[in-house]
Amino acid sequence: MQLGMIGLGKMGGNMKLRLEKAGHQVVGYDRNPEVADVGSLAELVEALEAPRAVWVMVPAGEATRSTVAELAELLGEGDIVVDGGNSRFTDDAVNAQALGLHGIGYIDAGVSGGVWGLTEGYALMVGGAEADVQRLQPVFDALKPEGEHGFVHAGGVGAGHYAKMVHNGIEYAMMQAYAEGYELLQASEYVDNVPAIFKSWREGTVIRSWLLDLMDRALEADPELAHIKGYVEDSGEGRWTVDEGIRLRVPLPAITESLFARFTSRQEDSPAMKAVAALRNQFGGHAVKSE
């Protein structure tokens, strides 16, 4: 099958390679001309045979919105656009409507797999019309991991990115749980070999997972994580998950706390804890530490 791929970074570039290894023809465009097959979106569209399929793999937000808007003017009736970035699910209806005015189909695809996807495959969560999804099923089959799992048509437009948002919220909480366990083991006077404990958990335990495998890999390289600063960014999906919990009145304590823990990691000193220390000093005369 023929496909256009826009955005050939760590994810898009490897997805292009995986598809080509499966026998698909992929025409790639990127702002970096050294990795691109064509020099513009117009050239990419011209290189594809109708009905066309174009996969957008650029940063979420304005970059994706502007790319979709440009494609709406370049593509034609019967073509399909896939947004495979981490777009907020609320953007999908807007994109689908803009493309639909030109008879262009739209699929939102949540993609998980990171830098390992080229060899291990990408888990795909897609939303869109059944006919559009069926038409691109050969592409999805080539990208997904081998076996029966790793792909879901989650529902209509927006469902794919919604599922990926929740996936990432769960990922936040899982990573936080492993991290808290690591810190407790490091602090304990009973434990002599924290990396060996994590390694032992990879088989036969109820907490084994790919994230645990990656934690073991990180500890093999740096047993005390001495070369890493405890500063963690968030890319948005955790916040959106918490927002949805509030909107739908669904309690998400583990996911919410894991997000807030990332905020804490960015503070050199906590204004909130300064306030607590000041209050303890005021009501009880408790000692405070000065700057």
UniProtKB/TrEMBL annotation:
Origin: domain of life: Bacteria
InterPro entries associated with the record: 6-PGluconate_DH-like_C_sf, 6DGDH_YqeC, 6PGD_dom2, 6PGDH_C, 6PGDH_NADP-bd, 6PGdom_BS, NAD(P)-bd_dom_sf, Pgluconate_DH
Matching SMART domains: 6PGD
Domain 6-phosphogluconate dehydrogenase C-terminal: 160-287
GO biological process, any: D-gluconate metabolic process
GO molecular function ontology, one term from the record: phosphogluconate dehydrogenase (decarboxylating) activity
SUPFAM superfamilies in UniProt: 6-phosphogluconate dehydrogenase C-terminal domain-like, NAD(P)-binding Rossmann-fold domains
Family, per entry: Belongs to the 6-phosphogluconate dehydrogenase family.
Name under which the protein is recorded: Decarboxylating 6-phosphogluconate dehydrogenase
Species: Glycomyces terrestris
